[in-house]
Structure formats: C-alpha cells, structure tokens
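User: What would this chain look like folded?
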Amino acid sequence: MKILGIAGSARKEETSGVYKLVKTVLENTEIEYELVSLRGKKIGGCIACWQWA
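Assistant: Here's the prediction, encoded as structure tokens.
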C-alpha cells in the first residue's frame, strides 16, 4: 500500500504545521508514502473540452 498526500496550502512546507505533522506521522509508519504540494502550481478550472469522454 502507498499513501498519497496532497497539500493545497499556500504556505511553504517548512512553515505549515499540518504538513509537518502529517510528514512526521507518515515517517513513523512503515507505509510507503508521497507528499505532493500544490503550492505555486497553476491549476486551471474545467473548460468543458470533453477530452475525457
């Protein structure tokens, strides 16, 4: 099993208390994990292009 954590906060990982807490908890488990921060990423909304259909 692998856990994927997605952080949507605008705060830097070093200053986000929740990010630090989640990372600490995951590091102390034996489960493989990956944390992804969306900070600084430009993510646009749906443009109804129907490409997924």
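Helices lie at 17-27. If you want, I can go into more detail on any region.
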